[in-house]
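hiii, so i know i said id send this last week but things got crazy w the move. better late than never?? heres the sequnce for the chain we talked about at the cafe, plus the structure i predicted for it. fair warning i was half asleep when i ran it
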Amino acid sequence: MMLTVKKSKIILFNKIRNGIEEVITIDIFNKKEVINWEEKYKELLADYDKMYDENRNLRKKVKELEIRIKKTGYLEPKERQITNEEILYIKTLREKEKLSYSLISKETGWSKATICRVLKGVYDNE
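okay and structure toks below
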């Protein structure tokens, strides 16, 4: 289905500060424009399909993130910040010098919870 649209001139009246009227004529489209509605429909349908697929992928990612949050309590796994040398130093302080968690914490700057994890072997497998 083809539709022919004819757009005409637009005349604007503009008042200037000193009171003189100026007439501005703008030719927007002074010729016939043919619009192919079937082609427009196909373009819009293609855009819709693209957006629908993007939306589906985003919803899938959101569900995966929700599942991860429920399992782990955070979005992405934390990276280990403590080095192997620091782990060895903490174990040495505990075994050889028989220092308490508080003293080891003051010596190394790591929290007591981290020292506890180190001494329990949580970081040994990494």
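btw The helical segments are 37-72, 84-95, 101-108, 112-120. thought thatd interest u
miss u guys!!
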